[in-house]
Amino acid sequence: MKLTGIIFGSVLAAIGLELFLMPHGIVVGGITGLSAIFALSTELRLGLFLFLLNLPFIVLQRKYSGNSVSLLTFFGVLIISLGTFLLHPFPALLNEPLAAALLGGLSLGFGIGLALRFGSYLDSAEKAVSNLPFTRWITPEGLVMLFNCLVLIIAGFHFGFEQAIYSVTAYLLAYESIKLCLSGFRFYNQVQIESYHCAHIQEALFHYLNRKAEFIKQNSLDGEPDQIQLKCHRWEVSRLKAIVLNCDPDSEILILP
């Protein structure tokens, strides 16, 4: 079952790359985006760079995560690399770059997300760097985001501003598709907030998000903070956090599964 899911996800990601994004010079972030830049700048195939650039991170992943995870990742990377080789001779499915960015980003994101659900990291750098030692000045997520932004900036300078817009569009769609696939296609999250200013936060959430939060712990006599809980759309989570932290920077926010 795992291998079937990884194969399907890898092939779906390869379709997004070779039949939608690559023919229009659209680049996403990560090792996948860096591989696309090298492939578009040379006469070599995308699959070759996908395999070679992921290989060092798979070795690093094996050191920290064990053989099973690294083998599944190697299998997924091998399938997506072979998939892009086999799909390369076929023409693009769409002639409009914006439509290609939209559908390509979705196909790539759902493919990567599906492979992740079955234990394979098609873009192995993120998993590998998460095991490295970091300081409080930089987190693994921050380093990955910095690398993704750098890849998109390089692509923008290399292929032009218009292509950069398409690339950012495809990247954002791929990123959201991965999160959606990993969350099991749940669009809403339960959010629990702990603060000494829950009443103020409750009013702000209703005013700015039109979301009603309910107290689950109030007027505690032991000096502990109150707690409220609400349901919000997954795309509202970032805005919700900003509203809560603006009301109380010391509040704690827990996103429940």
From TrEMBL:
GO terms for cellular component: plasma membrane. The chain crosses the membrane at residues 26-57, 69-87, 99-122, 143-161. Keywords: Cell membrane, Membrane, Transmembrane, Transmembrane helix. InterPro entries: UPF0750_membrane, YitT. It is found in: Cell membrane. It is a multi-pass membrane protein. This is Membrane protein. It comes from Paenibacillus antibioticophila.
